[in-house]
Write a structure and sequence with these properties.
single chain, mainly alpha, two-stranded antiparallel sheet, 2 strands
Length: about 110
């Protein structure tokens, strides 16, 4: 999504390349839909909190509120808040807590390519 947006803004994509970039985003979202979960990381991914942050990035950058029929942000936020410990951390780890916060914050402004 980032590369597609930057290249499109620079008018550096030929029509065939633009179609290929769009197909790559579509294929990535299809993978996420097929492997969708917010309760654990898909077996092929691992690293639960990093996976959730990746889901957040994909959802925001692709401007998708729904992935695989799921409101990924709402479902992920509910699961994360249930996993938060009494001291405000996640998994007793600064790194995991950072990724949880990045998910909840929706870390960056979306990139609009259209």
């Amino acid at each position: 999504c980032l590369a597609r947006a930057r290249l499109a803004a620079a008018r550096a994509l030929a029509p065939a390349q633009a179609r290929a970039a769009e197909q790559a985003v579509t294929d990535g979202l299809a993978w996420l839909a097929t492997h969708y979960t917010v309760k654990e990381a898909p077996a092929t991914v691992g690293w639960y909190y990093y996976y959730l942050y990746g889901l957040e990035r994909a959802g925001v950058l692709a401007q998708q509120r729904i992935v695989g029929g799921h409101d990924w942000y709402r479902e992920g936020a509910l699961v994360l808040l249930a996993k938060q410990t009494g001291d405000g951390a996640w998994a007793n780890s600064t790194v995991e807590t950072s990724f949880a916060i990045l998910f909840l914050k929706r870390a960056t402004t979306p990139v609009f390519s259209k």
